[in-house]
Amino acid sequence: MVASVTSFGRSGVYDWLIQRVSAVIVGLYVLILLGYLLGHPDLGYEEWRDFITSGSMRIASTLALLATLAHAWIGLWVITTDYLSNSFVRFSCQSACGVAAAIYLVWGAQILWGL
Amino acid sequence: MKAVNKNRPVNLDFKTIKLPLPALVSIMHRASGVVVFFSIPILLGILSCSLESESSFNELKDTLDGFFVTMVVWGAVGALLYHIAAGVKHLFMDFGIGETLEGGLKGAKITVVVSAVLIIFMGVWLW
Questions:
Q1: Range(s) of the domain holding residue B27
Q2: What percent of chain A has pLDDT over 90?
Q3: pLDDT in tens, B5-52
Q4: How far apart are the first and last CA of chain A?
Q5: What CATH number is attached to the domain comprising B100?
Q6: Domain assignment present for B6
Q7: Which residues of B touch A (CB under 8 A)?
Q8: Where is average pLDDT lowest: A8-12, B91-95, B123-127?
Q9: Which CATH code for domain A12-113?
Q10: Which residues of A touch B80 (CB under 8 A)?
Q11: CA A45, CA A61: separation in Å to the nearest integer?
Q12: The pTM is what?
Protein backbone atom coordinates (compact mmCIF):
# COMPACT_ATOMS: atom_id res chain seq x y z
CA MET A 1 0.00 0.00 0.00
CA VAL A 2 1.30 3.42 -0.91
CA ALA A 3 0.50 5.99 1.76
CA SER A 4 0.84 9.67 1.05
CA VAL A 5 3.11 11.43 3.52
CA THR A 6 1.16 14.69 3.32
CA SER A 7 -2.36 13.35 3.92
CA PHE A 8 -3.75 13.86 7.43
CA GLY A 9 -4.41 10.28 8.51
CA ARG A 10 -1.72 8.69 6.27
CA SER A 11 -4.47 6.80 4.46
CA GLY A 12 -7.55 7.69 2.46
CA VAL A 13 -9.84 5.57 4.63
CA TYR A 14 -8.74 7.37 7.81
CA ASP A 15 -9.05 10.74 6.10
CA TRP A 16 -12.54 9.83 4.85
CA LEU A 17 -13.71 8.95 8.37
CA ILE A 18 -11.96 11.85 10.16
CA GLN A 19 -13.50 14.24 7.61
CA ARG A 20 -17.00 13.08 8.51
CA VAL A 21 -16.57 12.87 12.29
CA SER A 22 -14.96 16.33 12.41
CA ALA A 23 -17.72 17.71 10.16
CA VAL A 24 -20.43 16.52 12.57
CA ILE A 25 -18.55 17.99 15.56
CA VAL A 26 -18.14 21.40 13.90
CA GLY A 27 -21.73 21.33 12.60
CA LEU A 28 -23.13 20.70 16.08
CA TYR A 29 -20.87 23.38 17.57
CA VAL A 30 -22.02 25.99 15.03
CA LEU A 31 -25.62 25.01 15.82
CA ILE A 32 -25.02 25.51 19.58
CA LEU A 33 -23.23 28.84 19.07
CA LEU A 34 -25.77 30.29 16.62
CA GLY A 35 -28.62 28.98 18.78
CA TYR A 36 -27.17 30.75 21.82
CA LEU A 37 -26.61 34.03 19.95
CA LEU A 38 -30.13 33.92 18.46
CA GLY A 39 -31.57 33.24 21.93
CA HIS A 40 -29.72 36.21 23.46
CA PRO A 41 -30.37 39.27 21.26
CA ASP A 42 -29.21 41.81 23.90
CA LEU A 43 -26.20 39.87 25.06
CA GLY A 44 -23.98 41.63 27.62
CA TYR A 45 -20.27 41.16 28.17
CA GLU A 46 -20.42 39.28 31.51
CA GLU A 47 -23.10 36.85 30.38
CA TRP A 48 -21.19 36.11 27.15
CA ARG A 49 -17.86 35.63 28.93
CA ASP A 50 -19.41 33.33 31.54
CA PHE A 51 -20.95 31.25 28.75
CA ILE A 52 -17.73 30.87 26.72
CA THR A 53 -15.48 30.29 29.76
CA SER A 54 -17.80 27.68 31.32
CA GLY A 55 -16.15 24.26 31.55
CA SER A 56 -18.37 22.53 29.01
CA MET A 57 -18.12 25.35 26.45
CA ARG A 58 -14.32 25.48 26.80
CA ILE A 59 -14.13 21.78 26.00
CA ALA A 60 -16.68 22.10 23.17
CA SER A 61 -14.80 25.07 21.64
CA THR A 62 -11.44 23.32 21.90
CA LEU A 63 -12.91 20.19 20.32
CA ALA A 64 -14.49 22.26 17.54
CA LEU A 65 -11.20 24.08 16.90
CA LEU A 66 -9.25 20.80 16.63
CA ALA A 67 -11.97 19.26 14.44
CA THR A 68 -11.99 22.35 12.20
CA LEU A 69 -8.23 22.21 11.66
CA ALA A 70 -8.18 18.45 10.95
CA HIS A 71 -11.14 18.92 8.59
CA ALA A 72 -9.47 21.88 6.87
CA TRP A 73 -6.21 20.01 6.44
CA ILE A 74 -7.93 17.05 4.75
CA GLY A 75 -10.07 19.32 2.55
CA LEU A 76 -7.18 21.55 1.50
CA TRP A 77 -5.02 18.47 0.87
CA VAL A 78 -7.67 17.06 -1.48
CA ILE A 79 -8.02 20.38 -3.30
CA THR A 80 -4.27 20.99 -3.64
CA THR A 81 -3.60 17.43 -4.86
CA ASP A 82 -6.42 17.80 -7.40
CA TYR A 83 -5.49 21.16 -8.90
CA LEU A 84 -1.77 21.70 -8.31
CA SER A 85 0.16 19.16 -10.36
CA ASN A 86 3.56 20.82 -9.85
CA SER A 87 5.09 19.17 -6.75
CA PHE A 88 6.92 22.28 -5.59
CA VAL A 89 3.88 24.55 -5.91
CA ARG A 90 1.63 21.97 -4.24
CA PHE A 91 4.03 21.35 -1.34
CA SER A 92 4.49 25.11 -0.83
CA CYS A 93 0.73 25.65 -0.66
CA GLN A 94 0.24 22.72 1.70
CA SER A 95 3.05 24.01 3.92
CA ALA A 96 1.52 27.49 4.02
CA CYS A 97 -1.87 25.99 4.97
CA GLY A 98 -0.18 23.89 7.67
CA VAL A 99 1.54 26.95 9.14
CA ALA A 100 -1.76 28.88 9.06
CA ALA A 101 -3.53 25.98 10.82
CA ALA A 102 -0.82 25.88 13.51
CA ILE A 103 -1.18 29.64 14.08
CA TYR A 104 -4.99 29.27 14.35
CA LEU A 105 -4.50 26.49 16.89
CA VAL A 106 -2.17 28.47 19.17
CA TRP A 107 -4.21 31.67 18.84
CA GLY A 108 -7.50 29.85 19.48
CA ALA A 109 -6.07 28.05 22.50
CA GLN A 110 -4.82 31.39 23.89
CA ILE A 111 -8.28 32.94 23.51
CA LEU A 112 -10.12 29.96 25.00
CA TRP A 113 -7.79 29.14 27.87
CA GLY A 114 -6.07 32.47 28.53
CA LEU A 115 -8.93 34.00 30.49
CA MET B 1 -8.50 -2.75 -26.07
CA LYS B 2 -7.03 0.39 -24.62
CA ALA B 3 -8.37 1.40 -21.19
CA VAL B 4 -8.29 5.11 -21.98
CA ASN B 5 -8.96 6.65 -25.34
CA LYS B 6 -6.35 9.39 -25.65
CA ASN B 7 -8.01 10.93 -28.70
CA ARG B 8 -11.22 11.90 -26.95
CA PRO B 9 -12.09 15.58 -27.25
CA VAL B 10 -10.87 17.82 -24.43
CA ASN B 11 -12.43 21.16 -23.56
CA LEU B 12 -10.88 23.23 -20.79
CA ASP B 13 -12.23 26.60 -21.94
CA PHE B 14 -13.95 27.91 -18.82
CA LYS B 15 -16.16 30.26 -20.84
CA THR B 16 -17.80 27.42 -22.74
CA ILE B 17 -17.97 24.82 -19.94
CA LYS B 18 -21.50 24.49 -18.63
CA LEU B 19 -21.69 22.68 -15.30
CA PRO B 20 -24.88 20.87 -14.32
CA LEU B 21 -26.30 22.00 -10.95
CA PRO B 22 -24.88 19.11 -8.85
CA ALA B 23 -21.39 19.87 -10.24
CA LEU B 24 -21.84 23.56 -9.41
CA VAL B 25 -22.97 22.71 -5.86
CA SER B 26 -19.92 20.44 -5.52
CA ILE B 27 -17.31 22.96 -6.73
CA MET B 28 -18.94 25.64 -4.55
CA HIS B 29 -18.57 23.29 -1.58
CA ARG B 30 -14.82 23.24 -2.24
CA ALA B 31 -14.60 26.98 -2.84
CA SER B 32 -16.64 27.82 0.28
CA GLY B 33 -14.39 25.52 2.32
CA VAL B 34 -11.33 27.50 1.22
CA VAL B 35 -13.14 30.77 2.02
CA VAL B 36 -14.04 29.48 5.49
CA PHE B 37 -10.43 28.45 6.15
CA PHE B 38 -9.18 31.94 5.33
CA SER B 39 -12.04 33.51 7.35
CA ILE B 40 -10.97 31.77 10.55
CA PRO B 41 -8.67 34.69 11.57
CA ILE B 42 -11.66 37.07 11.25
CA LEU B 43 -13.82 34.85 13.45
CA LEU B 44 -11.02 34.30 16.00
CA GLY B 45 -10.39 38.06 16.04
CA ILE B 46 -14.05 38.72 16.79
CA LEU B 47 -14.03 36.08 19.55
CA SER B 48 -10.86 37.56 21.02
CA CYS B 49 -12.27 41.12 21.09
CA SER B 50 -15.57 39.90 22.55
CA LEU B 51 -13.83 38.29 25.54
CA GLU B 52 -10.89 40.59 26.27
CA SER B 53 -12.73 43.19 28.34
CA GLU B 54 -16.03 45.00 28.69
CA SER B 55 -14.77 47.97 26.69
CA SER B 56 -13.41 45.84 23.84
CA PHE B 57 -16.76 43.98 23.82
CA ASN B 58 -18.64 47.26 23.41
CA GLU B 59 -16.13 48.48 20.81
CA LEU B 60 -16.70 45.26 18.87
CA LYS B 61 -20.47 45.83 18.97
CA ASP B 62 -19.99 49.29 17.41
CA THR B 63 -17.54 47.95 14.81
CA LEU B 64 -19.95 45.17 13.82
CA ASP B 65 -22.60 47.81 13.12
CA GLY B 66 -20.50 49.21 10.26
CA PHE B 67 -21.64 48.34 6.74
CA PHE B 68 -18.32 47.00 5.45
CA VAL B 69 -17.63 44.89 8.54
CA THR B 70 -21.16 43.47 8.46
CA MET B 71 -20.64 42.50 4.80
CA VAL B 72 -17.35 40.73 5.61
CA VAL B 73 -18.88 38.83 8.55
CA TRP B 74 -21.94 37.94 6.47
CA GLY B 75 -19.64 36.63 3.72
CA ALA B 76 -17.63 34.51 6.15
CA VAL B 77 -20.64 33.08 7.99
CA GLY B 78 -22.55 32.71 4.72
CA ALA B 79 -19.72 30.61 3.25
CA LEU B 80 -19.76 28.51 6.42
CA LEU B 81 -23.55 27.99 6.24
CA TYR B 82 -23.34 26.96 2.59
CA HIS B 83 -20.45 24.62 3.36
CA ILE B 84 -22.47 22.99 6.16
CA ALA B 85 -25.60 22.63 3.99
CA ALA B 86 -23.60 21.00 1.17
CA GLY B 87 -21.80 18.87 3.78
CA VAL B 88 -25.09 17.57 5.19
CA LYS B 89 -26.04 16.55 1.62
CA HIS B 90 -22.73 14.62 1.50
CA LEU B 91 -23.61 12.78 4.72
CA PHE B 92 -27.01 11.82 3.30
CA MET B 93 -25.28 10.48 0.20
CA ASP B 94 -22.90 8.46 2.42
CA PHE B 95 -26.02 6.65 3.63
CA GLY B 96 -27.01 5.96 0.04
CA ILE B 97 -29.71 8.64 -0.13
CA GLY B 98 -29.85 10.70 -3.34
CA GLU B 99 -27.15 8.85 -5.24
CA THR B 100 -29.06 8.42 -8.49
CA LEU B 101 -28.96 10.95 -11.33
CA GLU B 102 -32.38 12.37 -10.38
CA GLY B 103 -31.60 12.09 -6.66
CA GLY B 104 -28.35 14.00 -7.12
CA LEU B 105 -30.13 16.81 -8.92
CA LYS B 106 -32.84 16.95 -6.26
CA GLY B 107 -30.22 16.99 -3.47
CA ALA B 108 -28.37 19.83 -5.20
CA LYS B 109 -31.59 21.84 -5.54
CA ILE B 110 -32.42 21.30 -1.85
CA THR B 111 -28.87 22.40 -0.92
CA VAL B 112 -29.22 25.63 -2.91
CA VAL B 113 -32.64 26.45 -1.43
CA VAL B 114 -31.71 25.58 2.18
CA SER B 115 -28.41 27.50 2.09
CA ALA B 116 -30.06 30.50 0.39
CA VAL B 117 -32.73 30.63 3.12
CA LEU B 118 -30.06 30.32 5.85
CA ILE B 119 -27.82 33.00 4.31
CA ILE B 120 -30.71 35.46 3.79
CA PHE B 121 -31.93 34.81 7.34
CA MET B 122 -28.37 35.45 8.58
CA GLY B 123 -28.20 38.73 6.64
CA VAL B 124 -31.52 39.91 8.10
CA TRP B 125 -30.34 38.96 11.59
CA LEU B 126 -27.00 40.78 11.20
CA TRP B 127 -28.74 44.02 10.19
A1: 21-126
A2: 84
A3: 777 887 778 788 888 999 999 999 999 999 999 999 999 999 999 999
A4: 47
A5: 1.20.1300.10
A6: no
A7: 30, 33-34, 36-37, 40-41, 44, 47-48, 50-51, 53-54, 57-58, 80, 84, 87-88, 90-91, 94, 125
A8: A8-12
A9: 1.20.1300.10
A10: 30
A11: 18
A12: 0.90
Chain A residues close to B37, C-beta within 8 Å? 72, 75-76, 97, 100
CB contact under 8 A, B44 and A100: no
Q: What is the pLDDT of residues A32-75, one digit of tens each?
A: 999 999 999 889 999 999 999 999 999 999 999 999 999 999 99
What ranges do the domains of chain A cover?
12-113
Number of domains in chain B: 1
Residue of B nearest to A70 (CA): B37
Read off the pLDDT band of A3 (50, 70, 90): low
> For the residues B67-82, what does the mean pLDDT come to?
95
Residue B7 is assigned to a structural domain of this protein: no
Asked if residue B110 belongs to a domain, the reply is yes
Report which residue type is found at B100.
T
Nearest to B119 by CA among B106, B98, B111: B111
DSSP 8-state class, residue B20: -
Least CA distance to A72: which residue of chain B? B37
Looking at residue A9, what is its pLDDT?
Answer: 80
Asked if B33's CB is within 8 angstroms of A45's CB, the reply is no
Distance CA A74, CA A53 (A): 29
Question: Helix H segments across A1-86?
Answer: 12-39, 45-52, 55-83
A71 by Cβ neighbours in 10 Å (0-12 / 13-18 / 19+) ranks as: buried
How far A108 CA sits from the closest chain B CA (Å)?
7
Distance from the A86 Cα atom to the nearest Cα atom in chain B, whole angstroms: 18
